Amino acid sequence: MTSILFRFLANAVALAAAVWLVGDITLGEADASTGSKTVTLLIVALIFGLVNLIVKPVVKLLSLPLLILSLGLFTLVINALMLMLTSALAGDAFEVDGFWPALLGGLIISIVSWAVTLVLDND
Questions:
Q1: Which pTM was predicted?
Q2: DSSP conformation letters of 52-77
């Protein structure tokens, strides 16, 4: 249970870093009644986590030949596509304007999520 919570918090921090560092990735207001960017960020992190849990393994399996040929670098493209899918599912709450910002955002999210998980997870 704590592992899921750590992964959720790592995704939220990583998404916040991507929004902060990449100008074409924006975070809007998901719910006008709360008016809080933190709530919006947590909702987007939940959507991103579900996309990575459900869709990403299927896409990785289907693109296995490309992953082998590119020695794993195609994973960056898959991460960008998962970020763009999250943007499509989140609507106005989270927007990614194009593939290149998504690629850079996916790279940032991967690095920050790995670092936060490394710091928080003491197992």
A1: 0.87
A2: HHHHHHHHHHHTHHHHHHTTTTHHHH
